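quick q for whoever's on today - can somebody do inverse folding on this one?? i tried earlier but teh output was garbage lol. tokens:
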């Protein structure tokens, strides 16, 4: 029985020491996380504008492709109307304008896949950036 009692006391002492070590580690972690939280929220003045700039730069990719699409379609419309108006006065000139309108429409159709791909990727990049920042904020807060 004495050997059994000695083993129990040794186990209890080991458990107490491990609990003390865990408590000390938790105190250090709490102090460290408090420092991290303070640093995180005080530097928010810096990283929030950076995040907004990153979002704007990524959004300009999609905006440029959609502006290109719109420009091609508007160009096709105006050149096509000009071709129809000039048709009675200068047949070959009108055919040139109509051909240019068809070419602009063809380019718009060709670039449509690129526009859709860029817009889809921009949305995905927004999701990735937002999720990574939210994960970082949840870890810090």
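ok took a stab at it. sequence:
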């Amino acid at each position: 029985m004495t050997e059994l009692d000695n083993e129990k006391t040794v186990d209890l002492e080991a458990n107490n020491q491990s609990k003390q070590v865990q408590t000390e580690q938790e105190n250090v972690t709490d102090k460290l996380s408090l420092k991290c939280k303070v640093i995180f929220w005080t530097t928010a003045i810096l990283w929030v504008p950076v995040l907004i700039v990153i979002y704007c730069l990524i959004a300009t990719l999609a905006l440029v492709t959609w502006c290109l699409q719109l420009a091609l379609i508007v160009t096709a419309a105006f050149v096509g109307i000009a071709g129809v108006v000039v048709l009675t006065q200068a047949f070959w000139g009108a055919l040139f304008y109509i051909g240019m309108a068809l070419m602009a429409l063809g380019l718009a159709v060709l670039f449509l896949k690129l526009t859709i791909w860029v817009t889809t990727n921009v949305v995905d990049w927004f999701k990735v950036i937002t999720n990574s920042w939210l994960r970082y904020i949840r870890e810090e807060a």
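fwiw The CA atoms of residues 54 and 129 lie 9 Å apart. also The chain has three helices and no strands. so keep that in mind when u check it
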